[in-house]
Amino acid sequence: MTRIIAGDAKGVSLTVPKSGTRPTSDRVREAMFSSLDASGVLDGATVLDLYAGTGALGLEALSRGAAEALFVERGAKAANLLKRNARQVQDAIAARSRRVRTQVVTGSALGFAERDGGRFDVVFADPPYEVADTELEALLAGLAPRLAAGGVIVLERGARSGEPATPAALKRTHARRYGDTALLTYELTV
Question: What is the C-alpha separation between 33 and 61, in angstroms, rounded?
Fold first, then answer.
């Protein structure tokens, strides 16, 4: 079962599609969010969750203090379940007297990064492990102009996967491994 780990929506269960997604484990999410919480980047943040699946990463960020989240998911069925998950989390947070905004876009993460505007404080990218490094390099390059000053990109990969080349506008600040999962964190170079 996938659930919100902490914050205003703690304990809310998320519906997971029967196939086509690989939700981030509680252990990895807890490690990821401990680091983000410590940096203070989530408070009032605008979040982008790419390859969103259940929306667990963006919804966890909302539960922990982010103000709005935009989710991009290619699969129509997963996007519909994500909308339901977002409503549940929004309702749980609203019961604590805080309002958050969500939007779900059905489409390609790379296509979104290359064409859509907006600035984000936190970007989560949790692609299928088989996505090629070249696609991830293009994704990172497309995200760099959309990252707010002081913002971060968190890329989740298989621990055995290669590390994509970092575009000049970004610097990799952390690389951590949790079993079969690797988390890579990027910030703007300037």
Answer: 8
**CB-based contact 171:187 (threshold 8 Å):** yes
Which range, 20-34, 55-69, 168-182, is most confident? 55-69
Say which DSSP state 97 is in: T
φ, ψ for residue 8, nearest 5 deg: -65, -25
Burial of 9 (0-12, 13-18, 19+ CB in 10 A): buried
Task: Determine the 3-state secondary structure of 103 from DSSP.
Answer: strand
CATH code assigned to 2-15+25-188: 3.40.50.150
Q: What's the pTM value of the predicted model, to 2 decimals?
A: 0.94
How do the domains of the chain map onto residue ranges? 2-15+25-188
pLDDT, tens digit, 9 for 90 and up, residues 50-66: 999 999 999 999 999 99
Q: DSSP class of residue 179? A: T
The side-by-side arrangement of strands in the sheet containing 181-188 is 101-106, 68-73, 46-50, 120-125, 147-158, 181-188, 170-178
